[in-house]
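User: Can you fold this complex?
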Amino acid sequence: MRHLFNLLLRIRRRPVQVLSFLVMNSYFTQNVTKGLPCLGFNCYACPAAAFACPIGSLQHFAVIREIPFYVLGVLGLFGALWGRAACGWLCPFGLLQELMYKVPLPKWHLSARLGWLRYAFLVALVFAIPYFTLEPWFCKLCPQGTLEAGIPQILLHPELRPLIGWLFALKIVILLAFLVWMAVTSRPFCRWVCPLGAIWSPFNPLSAVRIEVDSETCIACDRCQQVCPVNIRIHENADAAECVRCLECVRVCPVDCIHIFLRHD
Amino acid sequence: MSRRPWLRSGTLLLLALTAIVLGLLRDQWMITLINATLLCLSCIGIQ
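Assistant: Here's the predicted assembly.
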């Protein structure tokens, strides 16, 4: 198994993220695959979307007042296997945030103190408010939905343009605000807002594939924190809920004290 | 470290698989497919 993990470390993450974005929006397979929740934040109203957005699906089950066994089961299966790794390797919105952070602007490093907000967004906007109002309110505000679905649908269907109202304007403002925030802070949506990340976060300390830090070898140089897209000190808590399992820390550690392992190793 | 380190992740995997089967038995795959296929105009900001 260690050989497999060593091989994983040789795989470059960016091509995997791009490939994941292309697969999630592969259009031609949508008649077959759209019943499957995708492992990332990808709007199913996107004209090319091939999979169902798990957050959109959860809201729909809240609206029809049914327990979403199937969607939670799929998310739980992958969470139990590798924690939040899909956030770091597969999520198209994670990729967008990493690309935006490359824009040469002054950077704003924020602590993860308000990280609990994403759990509040999950409970309020994905479960409670849709349950009581019968409307998928997270979708109505979602910046990824605006980018992948709202704008393309308006461009593709001119007959929809006269129907644009205040909600579309609000969605554009939210999207622009996040794009600016992404350019100055690393992965802000993942750290403070993402309800999908909130679902997968508790799996980090429980998943089969985990990260461990050899505290005797670690020299606390903080090189891991410098490359971490969610700005955590992995040597202080290898099971941090914010960790997206991108493995950048494993790659850069000068004393090779951060390891990935399968729980039964 | 627990004496059975795989127990928690193994239990979670079983729970997840059970939930998937339960969902499939309740036709939730079809519900997900239909919901994902129909375009929700209000969700993309069209009123």
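Chain A has 15 helices and two strands. The two ends of chain A are 8 Å apart (CA to CA).
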